[in-house]
Write a structure and sequence with these properties.
This protein is an all-alpha fold. 73% of the residues lie in helices and 2% in strands. The chain has one domain.
Length: 324
């Protein structure tokens, strides 16, 4: 029952977003993006009170596999949400590159991201439950997940692969061009157009398709990461979805100033190393009745992000002084 209520509320929010607040295509200003980012973040943090209430009533929420108290569930959700939100920052840069590559006008970007969010919700739901099933059925998979997260952190910190990303060289782009005709020009908000009796995809559809596939690749990092925080299906799913819902407004808010936070990737790498180590130690901690306090995990996430932002701003000021 709780699951269906949550999914229904998410559907209503998405319908209002597309059908009412953003029915007409328009350029989203940074001020408007800031307001919507504040709304989605505030809504997600407020939902933690709902989590607390649900886990306080066993008769309302029956599926509590780890027997979490309301307080524990509350902090697990906060950690999961902040973790997913922080990892989404890395996704914003790639989305900006995709839009530039296909010359998608700003006023049409929200529509593409809207449908991208729909796909992300479906794919992440599948990956979440598959990941939980793997951990439940295969004991050693946590070591593999942990090692993968640490490897990803290393690449994030020391590889320049993201800046070299070219959507038009991706396999998704090449395969799509072989399967269906693609128009050269953008036709408003349309993903497909009919020309001479033949349906053809527009550059907006190609941008959407590549965004969907890159989100799946990013989910390969974020899903194991949050499973290191908790394996409770509802907390993992709800924190993921609440973070995804705010991704669009966060993109419009941060896309033009991402270069000012160049050291944030090291913060994300630190977080991934931490959750990777935590996942590797999962069985040891469980067998010995040990658990890392919630405030330590939350503190590492917040301090890492705060440190990355502050150090980036500090380096920017130093660079400005040298230029002057």
């Amino acid at each position: 029952m709780v699951w269906w209520i949550f999914i229904s509320v998410v559907c209503v929010l998405l319908a209002l977003d597309l059908g009412v607040f953003n029915r007409k295509a328009h350029v989203i200003s940074q001020k408007e993006a800031a307001k919507w980012t504040s709304f989605w973040v505030g809504l997600a943090l407020s939902f933690s009170a709902v989590i607390y209430w649900l886990y306080s009533h066993d008769d309302l929420y029956i599926d509590n596999p780890d027997d979490y108290s309301a307080n524990t569930a509350f902090w697990k959700y906060i950690q999961g949400y902040l973790l997913e939100l922080s990892l989404s920052v890395d996704n914003i840069f790639v989305i900006a590159v995709i839009f530039r590559s296909f010359s998608v006008p700003q006023k049409y970007q929200h529509r593409v991201l809207f449908w991208g969010i729909i796909g992300a919700i479906v794919f992440r739901a599948i990956m979440i439950f598959f990941g939980i099933w793997l951990i439940d059925k295969i004991d050693w998979i946590t070591y593999l997940f942990g090692a993968f997260l640490i490897y990803t952190a290393y690449n994030m910190a020391f590889s320049g692969e993201e800046s070299e990303f070219d959507p038009k060289r991706s396999r998704v782009f090449k395969i799509t061009r072989k399967i269906m005709p693609v128009t050269r020009n953008i036709h408003g908000q349309k993903l497909f157009v009919k020309k001479m009796g033949i349906w053809a995809a527009t550059p907006l559809f190609l941008a959407l398709l590549i965004i969907e596939f890159t989100d799946i690749l990013f989910a390969l990092d974020s899903i194991p990461a949050i499973l290191a925080i908790t394996e409770d299906p509802f907390i993992v799913f709800s924190s993921n979805i609440m973070a995804i819902l705010g991704l669009r407004s966060m993109y419009f808010f941060l896309a033009n100033i991402m270069d000012k936070f160049s050291y944030l990737k090291f913060s994300l790498a630190v977080i991934l190393v931490y959750v990777g180590i935590k996942m590797i130690l999962h069985h040891y901690l469980k067998e010995n009745g040990l658990e890392i306090p919630e405030w330590i995990s939350l503190g590492i996430i917040v301090l890492s992000l705060g440190g990355g932002v502050l150090y980036s701003l500090y380096k920017n000021k130093q660079a400005e002084k040298l230029e002057n």
